[in-house]
Specification:
The complex is a heterodimer. By secondary structure, chain A is an alpha/beta fold. Chain A has ten helices and 15 strands. Chain B folds into two domains: 10-140, SCP2 sterol-binding domain (Nonspecific Lipid-transfer Protein, Chain A, 2-Layer Sandwich); 141-179, no CATH class. In chain B, strands 3-2-1-4-5 form a five-stranded mixed sheet. In chain B, helix 7 (142-148) runs antiparallel to helix 8. Classes of the chains: A alpha/beta, B alpha+beta. Chain A: This is Ubiquinone biosynthesis protein UbiU.
Chain lengths: 332, 184
Amino acid sequence: MSARGKKLELVCPAGTPAAFRAAIDAGAHTVYCGFNDETNARNFPGLNFSTEELATSVAYAHKKGAHALVAINTFPRAGAVELWHKRVDDAAKVGADAVILADIGLLDYASKKHPNLRLHLSVQAAAANADAISFYARAFGVKRVVLPRVLTVQEIAAVNRDIEIETEVFIFGGLCVMAEGRCSLSSYATGKSPNMNGACSPASHVEYREEDDELVSRLGGFAIHRVGAKEAAPYPTLCKGCFEAGEYKGHVFEDPSSLDAGALIPQLAEAGVTALKIEGRQRSRSYTEAVVRNFRKAVDDYAAGRPVVGGALRDLTEGQTTTAGSYRKTWR
Amino acid sequence: MWNAKDIPLFPAVGAAMLRFAPLTPLSMAGAHLVKTLIRRHPSLFSRLGEQADKVFLIDPTDLPFAFRLQPHLEAPTLEAVRREDAGLWDARIGGPLAALLGLVHGVYDGDALFFSRDLVIEGDTEAVLALRNAIDNEEIDLASEIAALFGPFEHVAATPARKVSSAVGHFFGVALTRENENHA
């Protein structure tokens, strides 16, 4: 059956209330955000929402006919689970349309304490096959899964044939090489990891310095990049660092390139995907506005049977280069 | 869609003339401006948190001077300084004046300017991120902030300030006011 004419839901990031409003005004169907603490995987200084700011933002979304999702997608620390429970309660209290969770214990808490609160399974849960996804649906009533960025379009179609809940896939933004929710690389250099503390390469451990016409990036005291004056600078993440391994010198794990699967919107719709997710809660409202407007046009064009044109956002991306990632597995 | 390569530089002739200009009037205006900003945008400080005590060197690389910013809640300062007199700072944010103003007005994305090397940051990265995120959330409009410097005559000054900022901004290709954003 053809998916032509299907209305795909655009799920957009917001790191601040201003970015939240910018996303809605630019055409987001749904905006996701997080609290200003370690309960979400974008725990950066000056970013995220207080409970009051979230309440105001949720109300703004609903007034404009949009939805608001709250990511509480890190893994609670042993002995400190109360903070994660409180954040689930706060999200329910302010009227969030769903919470995005990864931890089994937290899913259990939310499903029992707030049976009417819609649950989405975070990409951090790394549920990448039908059996795993169906378990979360049966056990906790999860309604949507955000698929890890390790599947091809064909694999996404296969998953959708065998599950009864919605799927959401990343369409644009930063890429991680590790299986989602399993990355501890940053903690080897900084003692902190995205899954536990909500920050990959925390800013408190990052240092940039201009040395002999090169920009040197250090993480936890380790030099991980040296880029020349005319080269694009990457984020200071270990997975995209330049290292020497034997006689090889370069990006050992992953190139600093960003996902742009805009051209694959028709194939993703045909594969049964419900929603397209844009990464970038750590970015500015300028990024949010530009990316959301671009992709809202793309999903509207697809729904109207017009050709989908992608690739206009390269200047906004890490490394100033883009890839379709594992959706087309030519890079393996 | 903006393109990093389109960021204009301050005219070299103007920059040469400013090399000999006294900085005291600029520092006085800066001090007044930052105090007004803090009064009008108290939530800047909840986002800055402990980073509000840091010293930032805001460095327009196409001008012959920079600005030392200390956004301390009790005693905020914004002082124009020659680079050789900049003293100690915790974090430096450098780039063309147009890029820095564009960041304030939400025209440019800070990460994208960093990727393209139009923006350089040095020192305390945590402080830089906190400042960038706090300013981005405030949706600051410098024309409105300048009008607010006139106190009870703000409403009189607002329209001319916006018109002059808009015209000058268009002429030089620089965002001197927050245009084209209209959130309900």
